[in-house]
Amino acid sequence: MIDFAGLKQQHDEVSEEIEQAISRVFKRGWFILGEELNAFEKEFSEYIGANYSIGVNSGSDALLLALKALQIGQDDEVLTVSHTFISSVDSIIRNGAKPVFIDIESDSFCMDTTKIEENITKKTKAILPVHLYGQPVNMEPIMEIARKYNLYVIEDACQAHGAKYNDSRVGSIGDIGCFSFYPAKNLGAYGDGGMITTNNPELAEKLQKFRNYGQPKKYEHDFVGVNSRLDEIQAACLRVKLKYLDSWNEKRRKIAALYDKLLANLPLITPIEKEYSEHVYHVYVVRSGQRDSLREKLAQQNIHTQIHYPIPVHMQKAYKELGFNSSLPVTEQISTEIFSLPMHPWLTEDDIHVIVLAIENSLI
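User: That's the sequence. What structure does it adopt?
Assistant: Structure tokens below.
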């Protein structure tokens, strides 16, 4: 079996440091909003290039609280994509606002920025682009449109830890950036976790209160908040892994380059890297008109693949019932063709050759 995400291999590499980090937390005897989180927030801010980082308990909560802090709610509209994990859109609904879906580019699978302005109305309050699969969205036109129409920009960077748009890391460009530390992410915890980044001190202060019951200090509540805090054990473990993130991402990029080379002459569409981006290949997504039969044949050879994502959000039962039907031809087409090959830093060249040979034989 060729493992899809390599979580066991990752832990084997850092297990000693992880055990030391966890032991440090236990010896200190402080598990919520302590020294480890403070240190990790500072280190993550420095890495991303943002002034502030606020640790929360998931990427979903990062998105939810980002919109809440910007006071986006009832009757507001937020422009986003349907080809994404559901939490990108759930965060809008859970704040009482309405998602307005923008179709995607057929090559990057990210928001098609040429279709944004035609969807702006008087109710539009924000743009929520998703840096999908590790590929940055084209942020320059988004920021220009946001300035023109006085809109907020919330970057969903939950799949793009360390990715760069030109010389800036994603999560440092818009008003707010949101990250997930789900275990399989490029920077993953040992459970759920998330981070919000911003350069705005007022937003940072508000978000710090929101994640902790709206408290500026214990038993004093400025507004109704939630319990959404990245705990000390996860923060300590993420501090260890953050040191390895660039080297792990570089290995992903090398594996992607080898895939590109070996798959070049096969009837598959492989990922691209836009001229403005440094892709970090959270997943390696290909397109095939024979997707389902190809995946079945690969599974028979113990090669694990996945589909990210088989049903666009606007076609999900929950969203049809809410009345958010849209016509998104590119999104709908690619959802029938895409699938993800194994991708993690511990794949070997031999692994890649085995996978590609299996694909080649399965396409005969």
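The mean pLDDT is 97.
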